[in-house]
Amino acid sequence: MASLNPSSRRDSRVRLEIHGTDDPDALDTTVEDEPTLPWWASSALAGVGAALFGWVLLTGLALIGWGAAAGSLGGAVRGGTQIWLLAQGGGLFLDQTSWTLPPLALTLLLGVGLALLTAWVARAEAAAARAEDPDADIGRLVRNVAGLTWLSYVTVVTVVATIVGPPSQGARTLVGSALLGAVATYLGALRGARHDPRGSWPDWLRPVPRAAAYASAVLLAGGAALWVFWLIRGFGQVSALNGDLELGIWPAILVLGAELAYLPNLLLWGVAYVSGAGFRIGTDTVVAVTGSNLGALPAIPVLGALPNGTAGWPNLGWFAIPVLAGVVAAVWLMRSQPWLRAETAALSCGAAGLLAGLVVLLACALATGDLGTGRLAGVGARIPQVAMILPPLLGLTAALVGLVWGVLRARRAADGLPVLESGR
Q1: Predicted local confidence at residue 415, as pLDDT
Q2: Whole-prediction pTM value?
Q3: How far apart, in whole angstroms, are the C-alpha atoms of residue 172 and residue 260?
Q4: Domain boundaries, the chain
């Protein structure tokens, strides 16, 4: 088995030399060896580079905002650093401001940058390993590259948070960046190395992640549809609230940018709503399918679309979205796996629905936090209720569809009838 440490490998460069026609070696090619960085150095630099990229990007955006508000350069850099840490779960602690609700659009942006750099390193290392040994352990290479990139990234971010903020910010940043980095580096390394870890999984388990992804997409689409419905219905209130702010062009752009940064949070709150769990906009508030109790809200235009008061029975129709998500996961899985028996189909479909519910539950947990202190503490999905409703509902729905489908398919096969669906 070839070593995964590429420090012993060399890149090949072909030098083309043209000689005279009387030379028997009219065309001579020679190979020069050129050293490359070891995998551990490339991985460590990728983690540091991703952290630096995120800081420069968000600090640059802060410079634009602070410049529009005629702020100081030092204030812009401090603000950009705090936004960078906020996006990674560390919170924002600036002067008298304490804000722990992460803008997940910025979190996703940082994750994509980290994943791309990890993929770049993994792609080069996997290509060299396969060239040296077609049977190289690419899975181990992926783990090595992802692990060291993750370690360097988390170290840089946590050290910065510890220096610029209170101890609680360092601890929060350690947890948040570790979670973000683990997902981004592993997925990036898998994609860069073109490695599928499901090769050793049981056959019934292999399609589960993709089916869970489809179910999650249905839930997010449902959350988006809910907000579109609210914005259309409450357009007048949103417009009035926006007009009452009397913002200039630059402040209006900054408010819009902040709302876009929190767009994934809004979608996940919508998912919590359609699941029946609901969400909160601060202390002693609830927004749920059965009714809402808002009280005083911050002057954020998009919040003007939220319903208030008791909801009618037709509003319970939103509860069909998580059921539909479980059905979609089961239908795709059963059509792509026509060989599954009834009991195995129920297990596979149930696992897909449960996985989707757990992934969305984790995302909803990340989309919660404080928008200050006092009244605006505790903003986001009602996590205990989401945990009790969403994963079991998705899992049971998908398992039931898979079981019924498997039984009907087995009966058709026993009767000599053709199975209508076909899988790849």
Answers
A1: 66
A2: 0.86
A3: 24
A4: 8-32, 39-195, 208-414
